[in-house]
Amino acid sequence: MKATELQVEGAYVFTPDVFRDERGFFVSPFQQSDLVETIGRPLFPVAQMSLSQSRRGVVRGIHYTRTPPGVAKYVHCPQGQALDIIIDLRVGSPTFGKWDSVVLDREEAKAVYIPLGMGHMFVALTDDTVVSYMLSGQYVADNELAITPFDPELDLPIPKNIEPIMSPRDTVAPTVAQALEQGLLPDYQQSLRLHDAL
């Protein structure tokens, strides 16, 4: 498995070997030993695993969890194709406001490790796109926050050839600057401490 650090500090994309033959293919999108070698620790204890199914054009996010408690994620796409985007929302981080993107699909079986305090979103590029999440914490509605994916300061690479389909919550979400002004964004040092304690 190949690990590549993304432009946001602490986030990685993992690209596993895919073994193909006349029957189909076999792949392991998560391998603990490679994660430990890359980030120096095992994956966080998994508190919840979730799946979402989306049709082409669905935009989910930018989502993040109030910190504390915060939630780290390990994400992959076992069906379809998604443009996955990670945004550093940790105030005080050397990469605050920066983002990176990865195309996740079944063929390459890439996965993304997203540390606590980051924003996460994806755009479904095909119908019946399934995204799988391993989470360090369980979903608590009151702790789940959002930033608009159309924040002009972020200028995210949302494809122009799709008609975005969004939830009501994501449609009215604030910009990064508005969330910062309201004191809603995670603190960098606190996020690191909480992540280390997972």
From TrEMBL:
GO terms for biological process: polysaccharide biosynthetic process. The record marks Y139 as: Participates in a stacking interaction with the thymidine ring of dTDP-4-oxo-6-deoxyglucose. It holds the Pfam family dTDP_sugar_isom. The active site is at H63, Y133. GO terms for molecular function: dTDP-4-dehydrorhamnose 3,5-epimerase activity. Belongs to the dTDP-4-dehydrorhamnose 3,5-epimerase family. This is Epimerase EvaD. It comes from Saccharothrix saharensis. The lineage of its organism: Bacteria, Bacillati, Actinomycetota, Actinomycetes, Pseudonocardiales.
